[in-house]
Amino acid sequence: MAYTREETENIEVDHPIQQLWEGILKTIDKMEWTIQDSDKDEYRMKIKTKGAFMSYPSHMKIALVPISDKSTRMLIAGETPVTTITSVLDFGRTRERIERFIVTLAQLMEKKS
Question: SS in 3 state form for the chain?
Answer without folding.
Answer: CEEEEEEEEEEEECCCHHHHHHHHHHHHHHHCCEEEEEECCCCEEEEECCCECCECCCEEEEEEEECCCCCEEEEEEEEEEEECCCCCCCCCHHHHHHHHHHHHHHHHHHHHC
